[in-house]
Amino acid sequence: MSATRADVCVVACAEAFRGDGEILASPIGVVPTLGARLAALTFEPDLVYSDGDAAQLGAPISVNASPQEPRVIEAWLPFARMLDIVWSGRRHVMMGATQIDRFGNQNIACIGPWAQPKSQLLGVRGAPGNTVNHPTSYWIPKHDLRSFVEKVDCVSGVGYDRAAAAGPSASEFHEIRRVVTNLAVLDFETPDNSMRLRSVHPGVSVSEVVAATGFALVQPDVVPETRSPTGEELALLDSVLDPDKMRAAEVSS
Amino acid sequence: MIDKRVTEADVVAELRDGMTIGVGGWGSRRKPMSIIREILRSDLKDLTVVSYGGPDVGMLCAAGKVRKAIYGFVSLDSIPLEPYFRAARQNKTIEAMELDEGMLQLGLRAAAWRVSFLPCRAGMGSAITEVNPEFATVTSPYDGQELLAMPAIALDVALLHSNRADARGNAQYLGIDWYFDDLFALAAEKTFVSCEQVVATEDLASTGPVESIRVSRLFTDGVVEAPFGAHFTHCVPDYYRDETIQREYVASAKADDGWATFRARYIDIPESDYQALARASLATT
After folding, report:
1. Does residue B108 form part of some domain?
2. Number of domains, chain B
3. Tens digit of each residue's pLDDT (9 = 90 or more) over B25-44
4. Cα–Cα distance between A44 and A37 in angstroms, integer?
5. Same domain as B200, residue B131
6. Which of A30, A82, B184, B224 has the fewest CB atoms within 10 Å of its CB?
7. Scanning every residue of chain A, which has its alpha carbon at the shortest distance from the alpha carbon of B103?
8. Which among B85, B90, B180 has CB closest to A80?
9. Which InterPro entries match (chain B) (predicted)?
């Protein structure tokens, strides 16, 4: 079995949850959801995850399961409790980002000036609260100059520079852990917390990533390759978590 | 004993231009759409709508009922972006107060507790403090930390939809998530709850666990029996979302005279006709 780009992205998302232990993984989107569930089935067995609705799952189900399909529910997780968990810090969210900048400021609210947007998107949703309360990662399925920008139009998720400027209530629990894209994995493990190229996916060159990024990326001398899925991981994806191959539709390669 | 049963028209007769109206549910889930439809048919205007928004906000914007929207998001869930809300924002036909989802909860909570604000981390460092320049911070008297002071969002009226209710105004939620319906009721001067079915008080506790009777008559002023009253949003376990009609709604925003066509077909009809239409549509999906 050879791994597709989507498979590599799922594993990269799973790796973002490595070491998290017994906290709630809140993935938004198919690939992050598969990543969290794959991590829980392999190297993070105590990770907590939901069905995307109000049920905390006791056993994994397919990402394409309809609401009518049976599932093992281990706890109740309505939105009110979800917010309690956000504020408790026992959570790691992986959100999308229409735009992201070098310090990890994220925008899902609107494009253009907020007062009269060129394109109204979702609104900030939970991003302001998530980012100042617990670890946050991002999944960006199309890594390009429109998404990786010098300055985002509306700061929804808070980046390192703005968290520091806002003071301890914003910065003390702030952490942007990882950014996974269709091309690469990025992090902020640099002296000034600016974005660093952590690895490139198999078949992707460093120059491709640099050309698709609208600001200067920190680059290590040698950029490793993102690890490929193991045979066990591919088997779990194909047999349990994503037999319908929903992941392929979300990743542009 | 008070009988609080009323019609959608009775509820709308209680509303006034310029009121602040909170809407329960979440996104395209369990929205009090039959009451929203009645507002759309009325000549009410200049409303401030407070919502974890879905087609409630979108339709009120499309019909020109909204002066200001207060929201953490507006989304149709299975279709992420709400077309009529987007148009209203992009054409600047409404004012907006954009909030983090948790801040909206705290604003309602503050109103419910009759305090002027509640402190939080959420919003600090984000654009929220820039797009809401009236928001202040507060310094904790205990550890000196600066926190955002989320102002109370007091509602004139809350509109909710539940699965069951009794004539006295006790409302029961049989789905897995109550969202923030109870909080909307607590934050409002008056609360009107529509429900799929009005049942006898003694039947509530046999229909579901006692904790599913989430909103007490202490906080409700009127009960509307409204079968398919949340349609096309979902109202589990009574029915799932009607994705067909939701798609039709979204497509209407792209068509010439799309809103007029949609409203002629789904809004400007008697609610009994709407119920028949919803029943037939759900039966085919």
Report:
1. no
2. 2
3. 999 999 999 999 999 999 99
4. 9
5. no
6. A82
7. A129
8. B180
9. CoA_trans_fam_I, NagB/RpiA_transferase-like
Helix (H) or strand (E) holding B66: strand B66-74
CA B107 to CA B119: how far, in whole Å? 10
Number of H helices, E strands in chain A: 9, 12
Chain B CB contacts of A133 below 8 Å: 121-122
Q: Which domain holds residue B147?
A: 117-151
Q: Is B201 part of any domain?
A: yes
Q: What would the mean pLDDT of A156-161 be, rounded to a whole number?
A: 98
Contact A131, A157 (CB under 8 A): yes
- Is residue B224 a contact partner of residue B241, using CB atoms and an 8 Å limit? no
Residue of A nearest to B179 (CA): A79
Is the same domain home to B41 and B82? yes
- Cα–Cα–Cα angle for B199, B202, B208, rounded to 5 degrees: 75
pLDDT in tens, A117-149: 999 999 999 999 999 999 999 999 999 999 999
Q: Is residue B159 part of a domain?
A: yes
Backbone angles phi, psi at A156, to 5 degrees: -95, -65
In a mutational test of the B interface, the residue from A83, A91, A172, A193 whose CB has the highest number of chain B CBs within 10 Å is: A83
The Cβ of residue A201 has, within 10 Å, a number of other Cβ atoms equal to 26
Domain of B25: which CATH number? 3.40.1080.10
At residue A176, the pLDDT reads: 98
In a domain, B248, yes or no: yes
Cβ(A174)–Cβ(A105) below 8 Å: no
Count the Cβ atoms, other than its own, within 10 Å of residue B1.
5
Burial code of B143-181, b = ≥16 C-beta within 10 A, e = fewer?
A: eeebbbbbbbbbbbbbbbbbbbbbbebbbbbbbbbbbbb
Q: Which of B50, B52, B126 would best serve as a mutation to test chain A binding (most A beta carbons within 10 A)?
A: B126
Residues B135 and B272 in one domain: no
Judged by CB atoms closer than 8 Å, whether chains meet at A114 and B124 is answered as: no
Based on the fold, state whether residues B215 and B270 are members of the same structural domain.
yes
Residue A253's pLDDT is: 58
Residues B205 and B268 grouped into a single domain: yes
ipTM of the prediction: 0.95
Do B140 and B161 belong to one domain?
A: no
Backbone angles phi, psi at B231, to 5 degrees: -60, 140
pLDDT band, residue A27 (cuts 50/70/90)? very high
Domains of chain A: 5-250 (3.40.1080.10)
Q: Tell if the CB–CB gap between A125 and B125 is shorter than 8 Å.
A: no
